[in-house]
Amino acid sequence: MQPFHLFSTVIWGSVLFAALVSISAGADDKPAPKAERFTYRVYGLFAPDRESDLKEAFKGIPEVKLVAVSFKDAEITVEFVAATAFPGAKPAQLVERLDQKLRSETRSTFAVGPQLTIARDKLKEVVIPVVGLDCKACSLAAYEIVARLEGVAQATASFKDGKVTALIDPTKTEQSKLEEALRKRGVQLVKPAAK
Predict the structure, then answer these.
(1) What is the DSSP string of 158-177?
(2) Under 8 Å between Cβ of 36 and 67
(3) Using an 8 Å Cβ cutoff, are 152 and 164 in contact?
(4) Could you report the per-residue pLDDT of 132-157, keeping only the tens digit for each?
(5) In angstroms, rounded to a whole number, what is the distance separating the alpha carbons of residues 182 and 49?
(6) CA–CA separation, 18 and 22 (whole Å)
(7) C-alpha of 55 from chain center
(8) Are 61 and 97 in contact (CB under 8 A)?
(9) Is the Cβ–Cβ distance between 155 and 147 less than 8 Å?
(10) End-to-end alpha-carbon separation of the chain, Å?
(11) Is 129 left (phi over 0), alpha (psi -120 to 50) or beta?
(12) Is the dihedral of CA 48, 49, 52, 54 positive or negative?
């Protein structure tokens, strides 16, 4: 074979090989999965200053991006690629898996669950004056007592303001049940003024 033909055969062989590699690589390439947004109810957001604690906690869950926090609605909006963040999870399991990660990251001071199923205009606000909530841990404890009760859609507790506030479904609970639960756990309620 003459040197020119050998050179041209090698060049064309290299070009053909590069083209085949490029085509086969392109055939296997799938577009990267797109992140989806989800809005969930958040527990543990008992005071506005807890938003910064929640944001800090999500830094420990890098596969989930915290997009927004709504203290007013006790909700978060997050963004993630389900297959990457929670491999093997079915769509119905995503909130449970995120809850597990958030609880683990925060020693269970935050949790997530599905959004409310009752319209906010059907809820009644209840305010219970309390004393002795002199620290963040005390406020968290009072909050957890109320927030976990059947019929409570959302709650806050403030040692600064001296009150526990809850949005309740009046068809499922009432203020006296919340007050009783707080008293049973040692939270001191402010006695009504004598008339």
Answers:
(1) ETTTTEEEEEE-TTT--HHH
(2) no
(3) no
(4) 767 788 888 899 999 989 999 999 99
(5) 23
(6) 6
(7) 10
(8) no
(9) yes
(10) 116
(11) beta
(12) negative
pLDDT digits (tens, 9 = 90+) for 92-120: 999 999 999 999 999 999 999 999 888 88
Closest-CA residue to 182 (of 171, 194, 190): 190
Can you name the residues that pair with 129 across neighbouring β-strands?
A: 163
Structure tokens at 30: 């799938």
Is-contact 57 75, C-beta < 8 A? no
Note the Cα 169 to chain centre separation in Å: 22
Phi, psi (5° rounding) for residue 33?
Answer: -60, 145
For the chain, domains (ranges, CATH) are 36-113 (3.30.70.100), 120-187 (3.30.70.100)
Whole-structure pTM value: 0.75
Q: How many CB atoms lie within 10 A of CB 84?
A: 12
Tokens of 97: 């898996």
